[in-house]
Design a protein that fits this description.
Length: 253
């Protein structure tokens, strides 16, 4: 507001509203997973705990990705329906905060190891420093004349940095298998997400956007994302777990 005035501040407020609404999904997902991780740590079942953390990191990202894909692709159309008059840069702000949220959603589960162990000092200090760095660097970027969206790009970059900082601290404090986590969990997320976007992005690019096309493409994107995630994004244990859960729900009904 100091550097750009109320119009851009309003655009940011709308983007943060969207982020908060989507973030509720991650919070609800972790509410279900957290007790299992803490229980495994308390029982000394560290391998089982790591399996839970690895799988919940993937599933948290994939589920949020499937949910946000239509919003990321049709941000301009959705905001136009919602607001009628969309503030400048609001579309870009919204997309960037959702990208940041997707990145952070993947490593939210590893924070439960930190809480279960009780070794929170280094972890919390690192997070506080990252938040403070974001504020300071935003001020510096604006002071030297960088564009208004710089703070959102900075937030995405710091989310990536935050991933590595968290993993390093957990490896130091809790003997967390950092390299395994990065190679088997985080690295595959990017190509899986990219492949999932191919069909809905092509439809968006080569069709006129109407409400019917939006609904149809959202459905197609949902199906294609589920297929890609199932084939390339999950291992045999995770597929077996999901199949078992689906079967148990069906039998209950």
């Amino acid at each position: 507001n100091i550097f750009f005035g109320p119009v851009f501040n309003a655009a940011r407020a709308i983007a943060v509203q969207v982020q908060a609404a989507v973030n509720n999904f991650v919070t609800n997902f972790m509410t279900a997973v957290r007790p299992q991780i803490i229980k495994s740590y308390s029982a000394g079942e560290f391998q089982h705990m790591y399996r839970l953390v690895f799988s919940s990191s993937k599933l948290s990202f994939y589920l949020l990705f499937v949910l946000t894909t239509p919003v990321l692709i049709y941000t301009d159309f959705i905001l136009q329906l919602w607001l009628k008059i969309v503030p400048e840069y609001c579309v870009l702000f919204t997309r960037l905060v959702l990208v940041e949220l997707l990145i952070s959603s993947a490593y939210v589960p590893i924070a439960q190891i930190n809480q279960a162990s009780g070794k929170i000092r280094n972890y919390q200090m690192a997070i506080s420093i990252i938040f403070l760095t974001s504020f300071i660097l935003t001020y510096v970027l604006y002071k030297i004349g960088m564009p208004v969206y710089s703070t959102f790009i900075l937030s995405v970059a710091l989310a990536i940095v935050g991933l590595f900082v968290r993993v390093i601290i957990l490896k130091h404090d809790n003997a967390f298998p950092a390299s395994t986590y990065l190679l088997k969990v985080m690295l595959p997320l990017i190509p899986v997400a990219g492949l999932s976007l191919v069909i809905p992005v092509l439809i968006y690019k080569y069709t006129e956007t109407t409400f019917l096309i939006f609904l149809l493409n959202s459905f197609i994107g949902f199906i294609s994302s589920i297929m890609v995630i199932w084939i390339f994004g999950l291992d045999k244990v995770e597929k077996s777990f999901i199949t078992e859960k689906i079967n148990s729900r069906i039998h209950k009904k």
